[in-house]
Amino acid sequence: MSKPTNKSGNQDEIHEIEQALFEAQKKIYPRSISGFFASLRWFMVWFTQFLFYGTAWLTWNDRQAVLFDLAARKFYIFGYIFWPQDFIYLAVLLIISALLLFLVTAVAGRIFCGYACPQSVYTEMFMWIERVIEGERNARIKLDGIPLSTHKITLKTAKHFVWAALALWTGFTFVGYFTPIHTLIHETLNLSLGPWQLFWILFYGFATYGNAGWMREQVCKYMCPYARFQSAMFDKDTLTVTYDFERGEPRGARSKKSDYRSLDLGTCVDCNICVQVCPTGIDIRNGLQYECIGCALCADACDQVMGKMEYPLGLIRYTTEHALTQKLDRSGILRRMVRPRILVYSGILGIIIAIAAMSLSMKSPLKVDVIRDRGLPRTTNNGSIDNVYRLQIMNTEEQPHRYNIEVNGIPGITIISDKTFEMPAATTRAFSARIRVPANTANKGSNKITFTIRDIDNEQISVSEKAAFLIPRKER
Question: What is the pTM of this model?
Answer without folding.
Answer: 0.83
